[in-house]
Design goal:
Layout lengths: L1 H4 L11 E6 L35 E5 L10 H8 L4 E8 H14 L3 E10 L3
Parallel strand pairs: 1-2, 3-4
Length: 122
């Protein structure tokens, strides 16, 4: 990640978000579309030790495919940190990564996608 961030202009704010963590609760309407997954406090909701956020990295709890829907992420990226460039990685390119990248584009952010870290398919 540092090598990617170094390609941005020197005046660029760099904020690392360790994880966008999907949080499903009992009765979540998403479970009628996809099998139950990422239930709060369940083993599937835990962040793998190898991917655990480092010191100073944030964890954003997200409720839908789009990490900006009903979360604090958009407010902090645009108004607090004034971020213009975002490096995005994720598990499902055709679901969460796609929706979040599209929302970033609507917020006029430059999106850098790391292909080798994104899995295609559900």
């Amino acid at each position: 990640m540092p090598s990617l961030c170094s390609s941005f202009p020197a005046s660029t704010n760099v904020v690392t978000i360790g994880s966008l963590r999907t949080a499903g609760a009992a009765g979540d309407p998403e479970f009628s579309v996809w099998p139950e997954h990422c239930r709060i406090d369940d083993w599937g909701w835990q962040i793998a030790e190898e991917l655990a956020p480092g010191l100073g990295e944030l964890v954003c709890r997200k409720n839908r495919y789009d990490a900006f829907y009903d979360s604090w992420l958009g407010y902090f990226l645009s108004r607090v940190w004034q971020v213009e460039h975002v490096v995005i990685v994720g598990t499902a390119a055709n679901i969460c990564v796609l929706r979040t990248a599209a929302s970033l584009g609507l917020r006029w952010c430059h999106v850098v996608r790391r292909g080798e870290e994104i899995r295609i398919g559900g």
